[in-house]
């Protein structure tokens, strides 16, 4: 328009051109892009991605090598035939050539499975892992029992210092819960026509009251315990089994730290994330050096590492572990595998509902065709250690003669674990007053031999997994998220840790009321406290009703415990959001249950399994039957005798329509249920050709934890 005006008009407007008609710049001017025809394939092709490129390069190198090997083998075969030196078989040579590197691969892969109580570690080529306590003893002013209830548990004393009756030591609520469980068992046993003396409990209590220990001098005790001797100067820390064997009264004192607790990082006993991960790395490093005999850290660069993570993992934990394995341990490659997937690998199943009962956590997940079904994942915060604690409590309640037992003392913890493993049973036929004995071995003291009687405690303690309110759940979420922040989306800042509809449903049922949303969510939250008091009884809301719909029969009560009561429990709707808020009053949205850190995931095992399966099957009856008929129980907590049969009966009672299908399986080949996960991870580590999830050094150095998005078989 300017060009069309006359020179005069321009002069009038003061816009007359006064320059020398030259362009302002000699730089070429780029016309603006036409947005209509705009196209880019930036980050849309695999070859633009370093992770894929490196993978392809590796595959190409392998192919070339294989082709070369093949040619060489053929050439050799020809030469040998020509020379007439026996019948050369090209294929046989090929097999040899392939087998050797496969074996080598297994022997250069370190497989690590960290648990709340045990670390399992070994080379992928090993048949079984080494198992050691996941603990570190650090020099400290006091030991852990001195920090709590010493010298005698306070719970056995009134405020004025006078002795308290054992029946009252754990509070009236706990006591009445125990008595109710005891009475329920009695009824159930009578229904099953089991003979029982009416005064069994009194007999046990009277016997235990009377017994006194027999003293055996240390040199007369052939089984005396070996205690860890401190070197001079005493070490700063001791890890693994020797840590558990440091006498409580050692000089200087040592305090035990368990960096993994309840399947999470232990944020309760540590003061910083740095010290927490330092302890994890010290324990793992010591295990690699002393158990795997890889003493020189320099050689670790030739090793790869398979690391087992929980099904419902915390992203920040995985990122931190990856950093530790890559930077500190300098492994050549690292890959992660989820626990339940590893369990199916270990057992050789393609599909199963995996129930892993560990020391402090129980996880459930349905696996189908080699993939975890994300919405079926459940993680509950109890396990074998809760059974141990509860067993000791029940025994103390019934006048256990060694009333001074304190599980924070190392020798008492080891003793209690031993007693539980040997005595506890889920087999109802074994419930009768019986005499047991044990030797109390304390460093520097004479051995004491105790005799005691036990009755239903041996059965009711492990039954706690179905009635977890009997466990002490008070401190399990203490400190959560105080040291390690929740992972958030880098774009919108929303939490992005993995979630599962089954877990959300359970959390919704357990959720205590939110102070500010108590009214609007009144229906859901008013039911919650009742649920928390008797967690095994309530039926989880929607998923279970789906199972019932499939089955077409009403829900029945579980043997020994009443039927569902809380039909008014919140309806999670199988989604990740809590119960819907009425449209009228619209307060600010409460946080989703999985984003809340105040909910204790403690829920009866039988109902939790059914919730998981219902979310995996998603109303598909065939799938439902497949999963319910393929429940595989692993983990140390499942080793209680009679556990499988008992669980089967509980599930049958809850779902009579499926009673023929319900089957609880054990891992095949007599594999120890405690090592199945490790075994599966080791098999995964040997799949050199098909495993795309290895994270290599070069790509990690360039891309860091962002790589996880490309390297995980699951959505990261
Ligand atoms: N024979 C047995 N009978 C009963 N319980 C047993 C037996 N053997 C081991 N346990 C229990 O198994 C638990 C340890 O199991 P496991 O090693 O699978 O746990 P973890 O992997 O260390 O813990 P988590 O899975 O909770 O992180 C302990 O509580 C132990 O008492």
TrEMBL record:
Residues 566-584 have a biased composition (Low complexity). It comes from the Eukaryota. Residues 9-20, 149-167 have a biased composition (Basic and acidic residues). Pfam families: Actin. Residues 1-22, 78-100, 141-167, 511-597 are annotated as: Disordered. Belongs to the actin family. This is Actin/actin-like. It comes from Penicillium camemberti (strain FM 013). The lineage of its organism: Eukaryota, Fungi, Dikarya, Ascomycota, Pezizomycotina.
């Amino acid at each position: 328009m300017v060009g069309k005006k006359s020179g005069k008009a321009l002069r009038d407007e003061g816009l007359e051109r006064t320059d020398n008609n030259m362009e302002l710049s000699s730089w070429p001017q780029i016309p603006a892009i036409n947005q209509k025809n705009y196209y880019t394939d930036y980050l849309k092709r695999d070859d633009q991605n370093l992770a894929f490129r490196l993978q392809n390069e590796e595959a190409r190198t392998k192919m070339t090598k294989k082709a070369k090997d093949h040619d060489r083998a053929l050439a050799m075969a020809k030469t040998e035939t020509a020379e007439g030196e026996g019948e050369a078989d090209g294929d046989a040579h090929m097999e040899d050539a392939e087998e050797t590197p496969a074996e080598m691969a297994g022997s250069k892969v370190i497989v690590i499975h960290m648990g709340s109580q045990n670390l399992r570690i070994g080379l992928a080529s090993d048949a079984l892992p080494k198992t050691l306590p996941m603990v570190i003893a650090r020099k400290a002013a006091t030991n852990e029992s001195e920090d709590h209830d010493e010298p005698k548990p306070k719970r056995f004393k009134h405020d004025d210092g006078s002795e308290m009756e054992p029946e009252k030591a754990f509070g009236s609520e706990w006591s009445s819960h125990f008595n109710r469980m005891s009475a329920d068992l009695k009824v159930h046993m009578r229904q099953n026509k089991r003979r029982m003396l009416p005064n069994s409990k009194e007999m046990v209590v009277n016997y235990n009251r009377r017994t006194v220990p027999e003293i055996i001098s240390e040199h007369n005790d052939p089984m005396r315990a070996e205690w860890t001797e401190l070197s001079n100067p005493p070490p700063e820390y001791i890890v693994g089994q020797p840590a558990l064997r440091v006498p409580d009264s050692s000089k200087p004192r040592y305090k035990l730290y368990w960096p993994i607790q309840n399947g999470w990082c232990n944020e309760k006993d540590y003061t910083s994330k740095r010290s927490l991960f330092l302890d994890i790395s010290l324990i793992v490093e010591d295990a690699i050096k002393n158990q795997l005999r890889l003493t020189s850290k320099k050689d670790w660069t030739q090793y790869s590492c398979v690391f087992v993570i929980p099904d419902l993992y915390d992203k920040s934990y995985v990122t931190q572990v990856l950093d530790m394995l890559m930077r500190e341990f300098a492994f050549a490659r690292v890959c992660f595998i989820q626990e339940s997937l590893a369990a199916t690998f270990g057992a050789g199943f393609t599909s199963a509902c995996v129930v892993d009962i560990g020391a402090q956590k129980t996880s459930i997940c349905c696996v189908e065709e080699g993939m975890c079904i994300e919405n079926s994942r459940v993680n509950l915060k109890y396990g074998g250690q809760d059974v141990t604690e509860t067993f000791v409590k029940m025994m103390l309640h019934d006048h256990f003669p060694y009333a001074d037992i304190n599980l924070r003392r190392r020798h008492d913890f080891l003793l209690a674990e031993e007693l539980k493993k040997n005595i506890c049973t889920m087999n109802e036929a074994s419930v009768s007053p019986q005499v047991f004995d044990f030797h109390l071995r304390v460093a520097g003291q004479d051995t004491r031999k105790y005799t005691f009687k036990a009755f239903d405690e041996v059965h009711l303690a492990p039954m706690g997994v179905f009635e977890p309110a009997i466990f002490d759940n008070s401190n399990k979420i203490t400190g959560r998220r105080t040291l390690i922040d929740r992972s958030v989306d880098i774009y919108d800042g929303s939490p992005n840790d993995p979630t599962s509809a089954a877990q959300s449903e359970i959390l919704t049922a357990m959720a205590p009321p939110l102070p500010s949303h108590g009214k609007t969510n009144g229906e859901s939250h008013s039911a919650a406290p009742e649920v928390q008091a008797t967690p095994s009884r309530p039926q989880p809301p929607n998923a279970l009703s789906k199972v019932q719909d499939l089955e077409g029969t009403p829900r029945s009560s579980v043997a020994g415990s009443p039927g569902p009561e809380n039909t008014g429990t919140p309806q999670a709707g199988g989604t990740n959001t809590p119960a819907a808020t009425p449209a009228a009053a619209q307060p600010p949205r409460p946080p989703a249950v999985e984003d809340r850190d105040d909910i204790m995931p403690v829920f009866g095992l039988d109902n939790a399994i059914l919730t998981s399966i219902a979310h995996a099957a998603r109303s598909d009856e065939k799938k439902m039957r497949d999963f319910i008929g393929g429940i595989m129980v692993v983990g140390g907590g499942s080793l209680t005798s009679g556990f499988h049969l008992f669980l089967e009966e509980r599930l049958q009672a809850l779902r009579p329509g499926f009673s023929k299908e319900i089957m609880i399986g054990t891992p095949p080949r007599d594999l120890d249920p405690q090592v199945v996960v490790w075994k599966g991870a080791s098999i995964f580590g040997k799949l050199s050709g098909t495993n795309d999830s290895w994270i290599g050094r070069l790509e990690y150095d360039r891309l860091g934890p962002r790589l996880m998005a490309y390297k995980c078989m699951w959505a990261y």
